[in-house]
Design goal:
The chain has 18 helices and 14 strands. It is of the alpha/beta class.
Protein backbone atom coordinates (compact mmCIF):
# COMPACT_ATOMS: atom_id res chain seq x y z
CA UNK A 1 0.00 0.00 0.00
CA UNK A 2 1.25 3.48 -0.88
CA UNK A 3 2.35 5.14 2.36
CA UNK A 4 0.16 8.18 1.67
CA UNK A 5 -2.87 5.94 1.35
CA UNK A 6 -1.89 4.08 4.52
CA UNK A 7 -1.45 7.32 6.43
CA UNK A 8 -4.73 8.73 5.09
CA UNK A 9 -6.56 5.76 6.58
CA UNK A 10 -4.64 6.17 9.83
CA UNK A 11 -5.63 9.85 9.96
CA UNK A 12 -9.28 8.96 9.43
CA UNK A 13 -9.08 6.33 12.14
CA UNK A 14 -7.35 8.77 14.51
CA UNK A 15 -10.09 11.32 13.93
CA UNK A 16 -12.67 8.63 14.73
CA UNK A 17 -10.88 8.04 18.04
CA UNK A 18 -11.25 11.74 18.81
CA UNK A 19 -14.87 11.53 17.77
CA UNK A 20 -15.42 8.64 20.16
CA UNK A 21 -14.02 10.70 23.03
CA UNK A 22 -16.45 13.49 22.15
CA UNK A 23 -19.29 10.97 22.11
CA UNK A 24 -18.46 9.98 25.68
CA UNK A 25 -18.48 13.51 27.07
CA UNK A 26 -21.38 15.31 28.67
CA UNK A 27 -23.06 17.79 26.30
CA UNK A 28 -20.59 20.66 25.74
CA UNK A 29 -18.56 19.60 28.79
CA UNK A 30 -15.22 17.81 28.85
CA UNK A 31 -13.32 16.78 31.93
CA UNK A 32 -9.50 17.04 32.18
CA UNK A 33 -8.98 13.42 31.20
CA UNK A 34 -11.12 13.86 28.07
CA UNK A 35 -9.33 17.08 27.17
CA UNK A 36 -6.00 15.28 27.45
CA UNK A 37 -7.27 12.47 25.22
CA UNK A 38 -8.46 14.96 22.60
CA UNK A 39 -5.13 16.82 22.58
CA UNK A 40 -3.20 13.58 22.23
CA UNK A 41 -5.43 12.61 19.35
CA UNK A 42 -4.98 15.96 17.63
CA UNK A 43 -1.19 15.72 17.95
CA UNK A 44 -1.31 12.25 16.46
CA UNK A 45 -3.38 13.50 13.53
CA UNK A 46 -0.92 16.35 12.96
CA UNK A 47 1.96 13.90 12.79
CA UNK A 48 0.08 11.68 10.37
CA UNK A 49 -0.78 14.67 8.18
CA UNK A 50 2.92 15.55 8.04
CA UNK A 51 3.62 12.00 6.86
CA UNK A 52 0.96 12.32 4.17
CA UNK A 53 2.41 15.62 2.98
CA UNK A 54 5.97 14.30 2.87
CA UNK A 55 5.30 10.69 1.90
CA UNK A 56 7.07 9.48 5.03
CA UNK A 57 6.40 7.19 7.96
CA UNK A 58 5.74 3.50 8.43
CA UNK A 59 2.44 1.64 8.73
CA UNK A 60 1.09 1.75 12.27
CA UNK A 61 -2.40 0.32 11.75
CA UNK A 62 -2.68 -2.84 9.66
CA UNK A 63 -6.02 -4.21 10.83
CA UNK A 64 -9.40 -2.92 11.93
CA UNK A 65 -10.57 -4.62 15.13
CA UNK A 66 -7.49 -6.86 14.91
CA UNK A 67 -8.87 -8.99 12.08
CA UNK A 68 -10.22 -6.85 9.21
CA UNK A 69 -7.80 -5.73 6.52
CA UNK A 70 -7.84 -2.14 5.34
CA UNK A 71 -9.43 -2.08 1.88
CA UNK A 72 -7.36 0.23 -0.30
CA UNK A 73 -8.11 -1.28 -3.72
CA UNK A 74 -9.68 1.87 -5.12
CA UNK A 75 -6.89 4.12 -3.82
CA UNK A 76 -3.92 2.01 -4.94
CA UNK A 77 -5.11 0.28 -8.10
CA UNK A 78 -7.11 0.63 -11.26
CA UNK A 79 -10.00 -1.71 -10.56
CA UNK A 80 -11.62 -3.36 -13.61
CA UNK A 81 -13.70 -5.79 -11.53
CA UNK A 82 -16.90 -6.37 -13.52
CA UNK A 83 -19.48 -5.81 -10.78
CA UNK A 84 -17.74 -3.12 -8.72
CA UNK A 85 -17.09 -0.37 -11.26
CA UNK A 86 -20.36 1.58 -11.03
CA UNK A 87 -20.73 0.93 -7.31
CA UNK A 88 -17.69 2.97 -6.29
CA UNK A 89 -18.85 5.51 -3.75
CA UNK A 90 -18.65 9.22 -4.39
CA UNK A 91 -16.81 11.34 -1.79
CA UNK A 92 -20.23 12.56 -0.64
CA UNK A 93 -21.39 8.99 -0.02
CA UNK A 94 -18.25 8.23 1.96
CA UNK A 95 -18.91 11.30 4.10
CA UNK A 96 -22.47 10.12 4.66
CA UNK A 97 -21.12 6.77 5.89
CA UNK A 98 -19.05 8.62 8.48
CA UNK A 99 -21.90 10.83 9.66
CA UNK A 100 -24.75 8.29 9.54
CA UNK A 101 -23.02 5.02 10.38
CA UNK A 102 -25.13 4.35 13.48
CA UNK A 103 -27.75 1.69 12.85
CA UNK A 104 -30.96 3.69 13.08
CA UNK A 105 -29.54 7.13 12.33
CA UNK A 106 -32.14 7.62 9.60
CA UNK A 107 -34.85 7.43 12.22
CA UNK A 108 -33.76 10.37 14.40
CA UNK A 109 -36.64 12.53 13.19
CA UNK A 110 -39.13 9.82 12.26
CA UNK A 111 -42.68 10.92 13.07
CA UNK A 112 -46.10 9.54 12.34
CA UNK A 113 -46.93 7.70 10.12
CA UNK A 114 -43.58 6.03 11.07
CA UNK A 115 -42.60 4.93 7.59
CA UNK A 116 -39.26 5.32 5.83
CA UNK A 117 -40.57 7.04 2.70
CA UNK A 118 -42.33 9.66 4.86
CA UNK A 119 -39.21 10.90 6.72
CA UNK A 120 -38.43 14.51 5.84
CA UNK A 121 -35.26 15.07 7.92
CA UNK A 122 -32.99 13.86 6.43
CA UNK A 123 -34.89 14.38 3.15
CA UNK A 124 -35.83 10.74 2.56
CA UNK A 125 -39.36 11.49 1.32
CA UNK A 126 -38.22 13.87 -1.44
CA UNK A 127 -35.55 11.35 -2.42
CA UNK A 128 -38.21 8.73 -3.11
CA UNK A 129 -40.00 11.17 -5.40
CA UNK A 130 -36.74 11.99 -7.17
CA UNK A 131 -35.99 8.30 -7.70
CA UNK A 132 -39.36 7.77 -9.39
CA UNK A 133 -38.78 10.77 -11.62
CA UNK A 134 -35.23 9.60 -12.40
CA UNK A 135 -36.54 6.47 -14.13
CA UNK A 136 -39.79 8.15 -15.28
CA UNK A 137 -42.15 6.08 -13.18
CA UNK A 138 -44.85 7.16 -10.71
CA UNK A 139 -43.86 5.66 -7.37
CA UNK A 140 -40.55 4.36 -6.03
CA UNK A 141 -39.19 2.65 -2.96
CA UNK A 142 -35.64 1.96 -1.88
CA UNK A 143 -34.92 -1.75 -1.42
CA UNK A 144 -31.92 -3.86 -0.35
CA UNK A 145 -30.75 -4.48 -3.91
CA UNK A 146 -32.51 -5.12 -7.21
CA UNK A 147 -33.11 -8.71 -6.08
CA UNK A 148 -35.43 -7.51 -3.34
CA UNK A 149 -37.33 -5.63 -6.02
CA UNK A 150 -37.74 -8.88 -7.95
CA UNK A 151 -38.87 -10.53 -4.75
CA UNK A 152 -41.49 -7.88 -4.00
CA UNK A 153 -43.00 -8.07 -7.48
CA UNK A 154 -42.97 -11.86 -7.61
CA UNK A 155 -44.56 -12.08 -4.15
CA UNK A 156 -47.30 -9.73 -5.34
CA UNK A 157 -48.13 -11.30 -8.70
CA UNK A 158 -47.07 -14.94 -8.60
CA UNK A 159 -49.09 -17.74 -7.06
CA UNK A 160 -48.21 -21.41 -6.77
CA UNK A 161 -47.77 -22.99 -10.19
CA UNK A 162 -47.84 -19.70 -12.12
CA UNK A 163 -45.39 -19.33 -14.98
CA UNK A 164 -42.95 -16.41 -15.16
CA UNK A 165 -40.92 -15.69 -18.27
CA UNK A 166 -37.26 -14.78 -17.86
CA UNK A 167 -34.31 -14.58 -20.22
CA UNK A 168 -32.13 -17.62 -20.80
CA UNK A 169 -29.41 -15.32 -19.40
CA UNK A 170 -31.43 -14.24 -16.35
CA UNK A 171 -29.70 -13.64 -13.06
CA UNK A 172 -30.09 -16.34 -10.43
CA UNK A 173 -31.95 -13.94 -8.13
CA UNK A 174 -34.80 -13.78 -10.63
CA UNK A 175 -35.09 -17.56 -10.34
CA UNK A 176 -35.06 -17.39 -6.54
CA UNK A 177 -37.73 -14.69 -6.44
CA UNK A 178 -40.04 -16.78 -8.58
CA UNK A 179 -39.31 -19.97 -6.65
CA UNK A 180 -39.98 -18.31 -3.31
CA UNK A 181 -43.38 -17.18 -4.58
CA UNK A 182 -44.18 -20.72 -5.72
CA UNK A 183 -43.97 -19.98 -9.42
CA UNK A 184 -42.23 -21.74 -12.27
CA UNK A 185 -39.53 -20.11 -14.37
CA UNK A 186 -39.88 -20.40 -18.14
CA UNK A 187 -36.82 -19.27 -20.08
CA UNK A 188 -37.01 -17.33 -23.32
CA UNK A 189 -34.41 -18.76 -25.73
CA UNK A 190 -31.62 -16.66 -27.23
CA UNK A 191 -31.02 -16.03 -30.90
CA UNK A 192 -27.70 -16.79 -32.60
CA UNK A 193 -26.26 -13.55 -31.19
CA UNK A 194 -27.23 -14.41 -27.61
CA UNK A 195 -30.01 -11.82 -27.67
CA UNK A 196 -33.59 -12.14 -26.39
CA UNK A 197 -36.02 -10.88 -29.03
CA UNK A 198 -39.70 -9.93 -29.02
CA UNK A 199 -40.48 -12.76 -31.45
CA UNK A 200 -38.89 -15.32 -29.14
CA UNK A 201 -40.88 -13.87 -26.24
CA UNK A 202 -44.16 -14.19 -28.15
CA UNK A 203 -43.35 -17.77 -29.11
CA UNK A 204 -42.57 -18.65 -25.51
CA UNK A 205 -45.81 -17.10 -24.27
CA UNK A 206 -47.75 -19.18 -26.75
CA UNK A 207 -45.81 -22.30 -25.83
CA UNK A 208 -46.59 -21.79 -22.14
CA UNK A 209 -50.27 -21.20 -22.90
CA UNK A 210 -50.43 -24.34 -24.99
CA UNK A 211 -48.68 -26.40 -22.34
CA UNK A 212 -50.45 -25.10 -19.23
CA UNK A 213 -53.65 -23.59 -20.52
CA UNK A 214 -52.72 -20.30 -18.86
CA UNK A 215 -50.65 -17.29 -19.75
CA UNK A 216 -47.54 -16.38 -17.78
CA UNK A 217 -48.29 -13.87 -15.04
CA UNK A 218 -45.09 -11.85 -15.43
CA UNK A 219 -42.21 -11.23 -17.80
CA UNK A 220 -38.89 -10.34 -16.13
CA UNK A 221 -36.31 -9.15 -18.63
CA UNK A 222 -32.78 -7.78 -18.24
CA UNK A 223 -31.89 -4.78 -20.35
CA UNK A 224 -28.25 -5.86 -20.23
CA UNK A 225 -27.60 -9.36 -18.93
CA UNK A 226 -24.91 -10.08 -16.37
CA UNK A 227 -23.20 -12.83 -18.36
CA UNK A 228 -22.31 -10.99 -21.57
CA UNK A 229 -23.78 -7.51 -20.99
CA UNK A 230 -25.57 -7.86 -24.32
CA UNK A 231 -28.44 -5.46 -24.94
CA UNK A 232 -31.87 -7.02 -25.23
CA UNK A 233 -34.85 -5.46 -26.99
CA UNK A 234 -36.75 -4.61 -23.84
CA UNK A 235 -39.03 -2.06 -25.47
CA UNK A 236 -40.33 -4.49 -28.11
CA UNK A 237 -40.55 -7.26 -25.53
CA UNK A 238 -42.70 -4.99 -23.34
CA UNK A 239 -45.06 -4.39 -26.27
CA UNK A 240 -45.43 -8.12 -26.81
CA UNK A 241 -46.07 -8.75 -23.11
CA UNK A 242 -48.74 -6.04 -23.01
CA UNK A 243 -50.48 -7.49 -26.05
CA UNK A 244 -51.14 -10.49 -23.81
CA UNK A 245 -51.92 -8.24 -20.80
CA UNK A 246 -48.83 -9.54 -19.02
CA UNK A 247 -46.92 -7.01 -16.86
CA UNK A 248 -43.19 -6.54 -17.45
CA UNK A 249 -40.46 -6.12 -14.87
CA UNK A 250 -37.45 -4.29 -16.28
CA UNK A 251 -34.23 -5.48 -14.67
CA UNK A 252 -32.03 -2.39 -14.69
CA UNK A 253 -29.31 -3.71 -12.39
CA UNK A 254 -26.71 -2.73 -15.00
CA UNK A 255 -28.47 0.37 -16.35
CA UNK A 256 -30.24 2.42 -13.67
CA UNK A 257 -27.55 4.80 -12.45
CA UNK A 258 -25.12 4.43 -15.35
CA UNK A 259 -27.23 5.31 -18.40
CA UNK A 260 -30.55 7.07 -19.03
CA UNK A 261 -33.55 4.85 -18.23
CA UNK A 262 -37.11 5.88 -19.10
CA UNK A 263 -39.45 3.27 -17.68
CA UNK A 264 -42.60 4.53 -19.34
CA UNK A 265 -40.95 4.87 -22.73
CA UNK A 266 -39.73 1.29 -22.39
CA UNK A 267 -43.21 0.18 -21.41
CA UNK A 268 -42.14 -1.24 -18.07
CA UNK A 269 -44.64 -1.87 -15.32
CA UNK A 270 -41.83 -2.25 -12.79
CA UNK A 271 -38.24 -0.96 -12.85
CA UNK A 272 -35.69 -2.55 -10.54
CA UNK A 273 -32.24 -1.03 -10.10
CA UNK A 274 -29.17 -1.84 -8.02
CA UNK A 275 -27.68 0.86 -5.83
CA UNK A 276 -24.48 -0.99 -4.98
CA UNK A 277 -23.95 -2.20 -8.54
CA UNK A 278 -24.83 0.88 -10.57
CA UNK A 279 -25.71 3.87 -8.37
CA UNK A 280 -22.47 4.54 -6.45
CA UNK A 281 -24.18 3.35 -3.27
CA UNK A 282 -23.31 1.18 -0.26
CA UNK A 283 -24.54 -2.40 -0.28
CA UNK A 284 -27.18 -3.60 -0.06
CA UNK A 285 -29.24 -0.94 -1.79
CA UNK A 286 -31.48 -0.55 -4.79
CA UNK A 287 -34.72 0.85 -6.13
CA UNK A 288 -38.08 -0.52 -7.19
CA UNK A 289 -40.28 1.84 -9.17
CA UNK A 290 -43.72 1.27 -10.65
CA UNK A 291 -46.77 2.93 -12.17
CA UNK A 292 -49.88 4.30 -10.48
CA UNK A 293 -51.70 1.19 -11.67
CA UNK A 294 -49.44 -1.26 -9.87
CA UNK A 295 -48.33 0.80 -6.84
CA UNK A 296 -51.38 -0.10 -4.69
CA UNK A 297 -50.65 -3.78 -5.28
CA UNK A 298 -46.88 -4.07 -4.90
CA UNK A 299 -46.80 -1.45 -2.13
CA UNK A 300 -49.95 -2.68 -0.41
CA UNK A 301 -50.28 -1.99 3.29
CA UNK A 302 -50.99 -4.64 5.90
CA UNK A 303 -54.59 -5.45 6.77
CA UNK A 304 -53.83 -7.91 9.57
CA UNK A 305 -55.07 -7.47 13.15
CA UNK A 306 -53.69 -9.19 16.25
CA UNK A 307 -56.19 -11.68 17.70
CA UNK A 308 -55.36 -10.85 21.33
CA UNK A 309 -54.16 -7.26 21.29
CA UNK A 310 -56.19 -6.15 18.26
CA UNK A 311 -53.09 -4.26 17.15
CA UNK A 312 -53.02 -2.89 13.59
CA UNK A 313 -50.04 -1.66 11.57
CA UNK A 314 -51.97 -0.53 8.52
CA UNK A 315 -49.42 2.01 7.31
CA UNK A 316 -46.67 -0.61 6.93
CA UNK A 317 -46.13 -2.00 3.43
CA UNK A 318 -46.16 -5.78 3.34
CA UNK A 319 -43.64 -6.42 0.56
CA UNK A 320 -41.26 -3.88 2.11
CA UNK A 321 -41.59 -5.51 5.55
CA UNK A 322 -42.20 -2.04 6.88
CA UNK A 323 -38.98 -0.09 6.35
CA UNK A 324 -36.13 -1.17 4.12
CA UNK A 325 -32.87 0.80 4.01
CA UNK A 326 -31.81 2.51 7.20
CA UNK A 327 -28.81 4.45 8.39
CA UNK A 328 -25.70 4.90 6.29
CA UNK A 329 -26.83 2.61 3.46
CA UNK A 330 -29.70 4.90 2.54
CA UNK A 331 -27.86 8.14 3.27
CA UNK A 332 -24.92 7.02 1.15
CA UNK A 333 -27.31 6.33 -1.71
CA UNK A 334 -28.89 9.75 -1.28
CA UNK A 335 -25.52 11.51 -1.08
CA UNK A 336 -24.37 9.97 -4.37
CA UNK A 337 -27.61 10.67 -6.19
CA UNK A 338 -26.78 14.18 -7.52
CA UNK A 339 -23.59 12.82 -9.11
CA UNK A 340 -25.43 9.77 -10.42
CA UNK A 341 -28.05 11.96 -12.10
CA UNK A 342 -25.29 13.84 -13.88
CA UNK A 343 -23.14 10.89 -14.88
CA UNK A 344 -25.89 9.11 -16.82
CA UNK A 345 -25.66 11.96 -19.32
CA UNK A 346 -22.13 10.79 -20.18
CA UNK A 347 -23.07 7.25 -21.21
CA UNK A 348 -21.88 7.67 -24.81
CA UNK A 349 -18.47 8.74 -23.54
CA UNK A 350 -18.31 5.68 -21.29
CA UNK A 351 -19.09 3.48 -24.31
CA UNK A 352 -16.22 5.03 -26.24
CA UNK A 353 -13.86 4.09 -23.43
CA UNK A 354 -15.26 0.57 -23.32
CA UNK A 355 -14.78 0.06 -27.05
CA UNK A 356 -11.32 1.61 -26.97
CA UNK A 357 -10.21 -0.90 -24.36
CA UNK A 358 -11.81 -3.83 -26.18
CA UNK A 359 -10.15 -2.74 -29.42
CA UNK A 360 -6.84 -2.68 -27.59
CA UNK A 361 -7.35 -6.24 -26.39
CA UNK A 362 -8.44 -7.37 -29.84
CA UNK A 363 -5.22 -5.94 -31.25
CA UNK A 364 -3.44 -8.75 -29.37
CA UNK A 365 -3.65 -11.66 -31.77
CA UNK A 366 -5.77 -14.48 -30.38
CA UNK A 367 -8.19 -12.28 -28.40
CA UNK A 368 -11.93 -12.47 -28.93
CA UNK A 369 -14.80 -10.49 -27.48
CA UNK A 370 -17.56 -12.87 -26.46
CA UNK A 371 -20.09 -10.09 -25.90
CA UNK A 372 -21.77 -8.34 -28.81
CA UNK A 373 -19.43 -6.00 -30.64
CA UNK A 374 -19.02 -3.05 -30.93
CA UNK A 375 -19.78 -2.83 -27.24
CA UNK A 376 -22.99 -1.25 -26.05
CA UNK A 377 -22.02 -1.49 -22.39
CA UNK A 378 -18.92 -0.97 -20.27
CA UNK A 379 -19.12 -4.53 -18.92
CA UNK A 380 -17.62 -7.00 -21.39
CA UNK A 381 -16.72 -10.67 -21.63
CA UNK A 382 -13.51 -11.54 -23.44
CA UNK A 383 -11.80 -14.75 -24.51
CA UNK A 384 -7.99 -14.84 -24.33
CA UNK A 385 -7.66 -18.59 -24.82
CA UNK A 386 -5.68 -17.91 -27.99
CA UNK A 387 -2.99 -15.76 -26.37
CA UNK A 388 -2.67 -15.33 -22.59
CA UNK A 389 -3.91 -18.85 -21.92
CA UNK A 390 -1.28 -20.22 -24.30
CA UNK A 391 1.36 -18.57 -22.09
CA UNK A 392 -0.35 -19.91 -18.96
CA UNK A 393 0.02 -23.51 -20.11
CA UNK A 394 3.79 -23.41 -19.64
CA UNK A 395 4.17 -20.70 -17.02
CA UNK A 396 5.14 -21.75 -13.49
CA UNK A 397 2.31 -19.58 -12.16
CA UNK A 398 -0.15 -20.97 -14.69
CA UNK A 399 -3.11 -18.61 -15.16
CA UNK A 400 -2.05 -16.47 -12.23
CA UNK A 401 0.81 -15.06 -14.28
CA UNK A 402 -1.61 -12.56 -15.85
CA UNK A 403 -2.89 -11.44 -12.44
CA UNK A 404 0.73 -11.05 -11.29
CA UNK A 405 1.66 -8.98 -14.33
CA UNK A 406 -1.40 -6.74 -14.04
CA UNK A 407 -1.15 -6.19 -10.28
CA UNK A 408 2.53 -5.34 -10.61
CA UNK A 409 1.37 -2.48 -12.84
CA UNK A 410 -1.39 -1.46 -10.47
CA UNK A 411 -4.34 -3.13 -12.20
CA UNK A 412 -6.70 -5.49 -10.37
CA UNK A 413 -10.19 -6.88 -10.76
CA UNK A 414 -9.84 -9.51 -13.45
CA UNK A 415 -10.72 -12.97 -12.18
CA UNK A 416 -7.51 -14.17 -10.54
CA UNK A 417 -6.08 -17.08 -12.46
CA UNK A 418 -8.42 -16.65 -15.43
CA UNK A 419 -6.77 -16.55 -18.83
CA UNK A 420 -9.52 -18.09 -20.92
CA UNK A 421 -12.90 -16.36 -20.64
CA UNK A 422 -13.32 -13.53 -18.17
CA UNK A 423 -15.09 -10.21 -17.66
CA UNK A 424 -14.03 -6.63 -17.04
CA UNK A 425 -15.69 -3.24 -16.69
CA UNK A 426 -14.33 0.19 -17.63
CA UNK A 427 -17.15 2.28 -16.13
CA UNK A 428 -16.00 5.45 -14.43
CA UNK A 429 -12.34 5.15 -15.43
CA UNK A 430 -10.71 8.25 -16.84
CA UNK A 431 -9.32 8.21 -20.36
CA UNK A 432 -5.85 8.28 -18.83
CA UNK A 433 -6.56 5.09 -16.90
CA UNK A 434 -8.22 3.36 -19.86
CA UNK A 435 -5.21 4.11 -22.06
CA UNK A 436 -2.90 2.88 -19.30
CA UNK A 437 -4.81 -0.42 -19.04
CA UNK A 438 -4.63 -0.95 -22.82
CA UNK A 439 -0.93 -0.14 -22.90
CA UNK A 440 -0.33 -2.53 -20.00
CA UNK A 441 -2.07 -5.43 -21.73
CA UNK A 442 -0.07 -4.79 -24.88
CA UNK A 443 3.17 -4.50 -22.87
CA UNK A 444 2.43 -7.91 -21.31
CA UNK A 445 1.75 -9.30 -24.78
CA UNK A 446 5.06 -7.94 -26.05
CA UNK A 447 6.90 -9.31 -23.03
CA UNK A 448 5.70 -12.83 -23.81
CA UNK A 449 6.19 -12.38 -27.56
CA UNK A 450 2.51 -12.39 -28.46
CA UNK A 451 1.75 -10.63 -31.71
CA UNK A 452 0.13 -7.20 -31.39
CA UNK A 453 -1.46 -6.14 -34.64
CA UNK A 454 -0.64 -2.60 -35.66
CA UNK A 455 -3.22 -0.54 -37.48
CA UNK A 456 -6.39 1.38 -36.74
CA UNK A 457 -6.18 0.83 -32.99
CA UNK A 458 -2.69 2.33 -32.82
CA UNK A 459 -3.70 5.19 -35.11
CA UNK A 460 -6.59 6.01 -32.81
CA UNK A 461 -4.32 5.93 -29.76
CA UNK A 462 -1.82 8.21 -31.46
CA UNK A 463 -4.57 10.64 -32.38
CA UNK A 464 -5.80 10.67 -28.79
CA UNK A 465 -2.32 11.32 -27.39
CA UNK A 466 -1.73 14.14 -29.87
CA UNK A 467 -5.08 15.66 -29.03
CA UNK A 468 -4.22 15.50 -25.33
CA UNK A 469 -0.99 17.39 -25.96
CA UNK A 470 -2.85 20.10 -27.86
CA UNK A 471 -5.58 20.32 -25.27
CA UNK A 472 -8.10 19.55 -28.01
CA UNK A 473 -10.65 16.92 -26.94
CA UNK A 474 -13.15 17.52 -29.73
CA UNK A 475 -12.74 13.91 -30.84
CA UNK A 476 -14.55 12.80 -27.71
CA UNK A 477 -11.68 10.83 -26.18
CA UNK A 478 -11.24 12.86 -23.02
Amino acid sequence: MDIRTQKTFEALFALEDIRETLRQTLPNITNPEEEHSIKEGVNRVRKILDDIENGTGTPEVRKIADSIDIRSREENYINIQPIQAAGRLTPEARKALIAYGDGYSTCDACRKPFRLDKITNPPVAPFHEQLASFVNMDVARVVPGARRGFQAVASTLVNKGDSVLVSALAHYTEFLAVEEAGGIVREIPLDENKIVTADATAEKIEAVRQETGKLPVLVMIDHFDYQYANEHDVKSIAKIAHQYDIPLLYNGAYTVGVMPVDGKDIGADFVAGSGHKSMASPAPSGVLATTEEWAPKVFRTTQMTGDLTKRKFGVKEVEMLGCTLMGSTLLGMMASFPAVKERVKNWEEELKKSNYLIDGLLAIEGSRVVSEYPRKHTLSKVDTTGNFDVIAQNHKRRGFFLSDELSSKGIVGEFAGATRVWKLNTYGLSWEKVRYVVDTFEDIANKYKLKVNKGTSDENKLQIRNSDKKGDYSNGYK
